[in-house]
Amino acid sequence: MLADVFLLGGKVFGRARHARGLAAGAGAGNPVRSGEEKKHAAERWAGVVQKHPVLATIAAAAFILILAAPALVMKLSMPDESAQARGTMGYASYATMAQGFGPGFDAPLIVAARVTPSDVTPRGGLGPSGSGVSPGGTVSPRAGTALASLQKAIAGTPGIADVTAPVVSRDGQAAMLIAYPTTGEQDAATNALVNRFDDTVLPKAGLTAYITGPNAANVSFTNLVGNRLPWLIGVVVALSMVLLLVVFRSVVIAVKAALMNLLSVCAAYGVLTAVTQWGWLGHALGFPEKMPVTTWVPIFLFVILFGLSMDYEVFLLSKIREEYDRLGDNGLAVGRGLAATARVISAAAAIMVVVFLSFVLTPDVSVKQIGLGLAAAVLVDATVVRLVLVPAVMELLGRANWWLPSWLARLLPAGRADIVSEDEPAAYPAEVR
User: Fold this and answer.
1) For every residue of the chain, which 3-state class applies, written as one string?
2) What percent of the chain has pLDDT over 70?
3) Fewer CB near the terminus (10 Å): N or C of the chain?
4) Span between the terminal Cα atoms of the chain, in Å
5) Distance CA 85, CA 91 (A)
6) Pairing relation of β-strands 76-77 and 293-294?
7) How buried is residue 141: exposed, middle or buried, by Cβ count under 10 Å (0-12/13-18/19+)?
8) What is the number of other CB atoms lying within 10 angstroms of the CB of residue 8?
9) What fold does the segment set 2-23+40-81+228-411 form as a domain?
10) Domain 109-212 belongs to what topology?
11) In which residue ranges of the chain is CATH 3.30.70 found?
12) In this predicted model, what pLDDT tens digit does every residue of 39-96 receive, in sequence order?
């Protein structure tokens, strides 16, 4: 919305200034010649990039890929009290328990076991002697032995500091054990331990058992997000490519726009991982300790950043397509399109970067991560991507930017993506097929 307002205002006032300039020039007896018009700074910059497109493409792509590289080892987890700001009651409580009982005391793993009706001892019966089953309901000797075996298997699992004796429900239908890991909730080893319980320990317990509790639920949610996030990205990217194909009637433009936007999102993921997980500039940005990325933050960032990046891309490509249809020169169209939209995109991006960086001032680490990721992506997208990578790649592709197969052109709705300038009628060049 903000960017749309800037775009509309830029077009209106830009045309007004252009008209006043023409009138003043004509009145002074100095007709303005197109070849003598002073070029916009963005157009001059586009010319520099277009003179060295290969170097600009490699440098910009390498810079973005370096920023995105840390995302390859991004770990997801829900924040606990250890991630809270120093001096808060939440962190003080965590530090006290961790010092007295170990870091895993704050991340207990609850194991619930089902005891079948055939294993239940009639009311008034006794539990198995020496089974280690705590008072409560009573179970048969076979069930008591199975529960004792489960307790032993859990206690012998690497990464477990202690496990309580099984507590049986009053009706003898279920039993519960609590295991305490040697590592905290934010530690990747705790996630691996929960997955090991699900995959190997509990299936071999000899009875039906489940792992539950807040920590196990967080790990399960993390696994779900990790499995579904690629599908979310794939569906959104595919739909955006279809829409861009219909609007701009170019296969290359649709694919290029999707890839450029993905690069911006990946750069945000990489910066976020380096700051929060590796601790680079973490204290300067208000992150008290190294920590994984909050589980839901990557999804939140992707849907917002992809929309913002696509918004900038459409602004830029609309003007480039308008100039290309009017002039038929790809290089000139890219330069003029960049010149016409640079101020709009830069102004909107600058405002959003400042707003998003203000999120870092909040005490909540998840909000900090959102602000940092959004600011990093918008900054990279509005500078490296739009000012370097886009003009360089479009210069390398030339007329291939507007390639559309004939059979696909017949299937797509007829029409032009751009609004033709009122000052000069369009002389549409033929689509490249």
Assistant:
1) CHHHHHHHHHHHHHHHHHHHHHHHHHHCCCCCCHHHCCCCHHHHHHHHHHHCHHHHHHHHHHHHHHHHHHHHHCCEECCCHHHCCCCCHHHHHHHHHHHHHCHHHHCCEEEEEECCHHHECCCCCCCCCCCCCECCCCECHHHHHHHHHHHHHHHCCCCEEEECCCEECCCCCEEEEEEEECCCCCCHHHHHHHHHHHHHHHHHCCCCEEEECHHHHHHHHHHHHHHHHHHHHHHHHHHHHHHHHHHHCCHHHHHHHHHHHHHHHHHHHHHHHHHHHCCCCCCCCCCCCCCCEECCHHHHHHHHHHHHHHHHHHHHHHHHHHHHHHHCCHHHHHHHHHHHHHHHHHHHHHHHHHHHHHHHHCCCHHHHHHHHHHHHHHHHHHHHHHHHHHHHHHHHHHHHHHECCHHHHHHCCCCCCCCCCCCCCCCCCCCEC
2) 81
3) N
4) 35
5) 7
6) parallel
7) middle
8) 11
9) Multidrug efflux transporter AcrB transmembrane fold (1.20.1640)
10) Alpha-Beta Plaits (3.30.70)
11) 109-212
12) 667 778 888 998 999 999 999 999 999 999 999 999 999 988 887 777 888 888 888 9
Give Cα separations from 349 to 101, 288, 374 (angstroms). 48, 28, 11
What the block records as the tokens of 215 is: 């920590």
In the numeric block, which tokens belong to residue 389? Answer: 């990578």
Measured CA to CA, the distance from residue 384 to residue 84 in angstroms comes to 34
The amino acid at 221 = F
Return the amino acid letter for 347: A
Residue with token string 């169209």: 333
